[in-house]
Description:
This protein has nine helices and 17 strands. The protein is of the alpha+beta class. It has two domains: 19-206, Fructose-1,6-Bisphosphatase, subunit A, domain 1 (Fructose-1,6-Bisphosphatase, Chain A, domain 1), CATH 3.30.540; 217-340, D-Maltodextrin-Binding Protein, domain 2 (3-Layer(aba) Sandwich), CATH 3.40.190. It has an eight-stranded mixed beta sheet, with helices on both faces. A hairpin with a 3-residue loop joins strand 7 and strand 8. The longest helix has 21 residues, at 36-56. The two termini are 27 Å apart.
Amino acid sequence: MQPTVSWGPPAPDQIGWTLERHILYRQRAFPDAKGEFTALFHQLALAGKIIGSRVTQAGLAGVLGVTGDVNVQGETVQKMDEFANATLIRCLESSGHVCIMASEENEDAIGVPEQFTTGKYVVLFDPLDGSSNIDVNISIGTIFSVHRRVSTGRDGTLKDCLQKGSVQVAAGYIMYGSSVMFVYTTGDGVHGFTLDPSIGEFLLSHEDIRIPQRGNTYSINEGNRMHWEEGIAKWVDWVRAPDAEKVHPYGHRYVGTLVADFHRTLLKGGVFVYPADKKNRTGKLRLLYEAAPMAFIAEAAGGAASSGKERILDIEPTELHQRVPLFIGSKDDVKDVERFL
């Protein structure tokens, strides 16, 4: 297992720091750092700004609605899906720091064109999580995962993409809602930045986010109840019922966008659940693009993430679009769900 990166003490008075300055400061713990990681994050942030700008103008820019195509997941492609995917690919492939990429929207891994140099990082992403919610103006987001390459040569390989979540170098998401937020971790803390559109910079707004040990809300799509396994139904009934310790009942919160539901859980505590069921026997969320990066963030913030059988970060990927159940959030709440499974 790759050791967790320790960045050293936080800088004094970091409120108002830009994302780039924050990363540069924390890289001082590595004398051999060459700025490649910072440059990679600059491109991710740039992609987020471009996508965020288009999202806020979606109703005026003619990018609402579907394209008529179906992606590799069997899902209807939204116009904004295509735009976000193309934006991330263009920003990353020209950075000189990526050897291969993979996207939820593409069946195969994405190589770097010959006219660009390659680097030592691998980036996996869901370009626009919750894109079906664009038309009704609900928060959506971009999820990303960064690994170091394990192959040699100019081009990356599938092996570079199929790495366990525990060896991620970084993970994060960019949420497009009432504000645009960039949340990331390198494994030793979770930090949030809010985009100030007047200056075009992500500014530090949430330093060292910690998930409470226990929350008071649960998040699950109760419309799928008829398809749940017995253990999930029993857990929901239990968490909704009053108990002697007055811990329950929990409130139910469900947006339907993983980024939005997870962001609330990260800040407020509780648990987000997307189980396997009679329709999706292996789960519905993608391991590489959704579950693993979110699990990396959750654990770095003091939370937990499980498939119901094992730690998400310990799962060995076998294919690019592998699906898993996901139980993520406050440690005690995740343990409660696991007891019923």
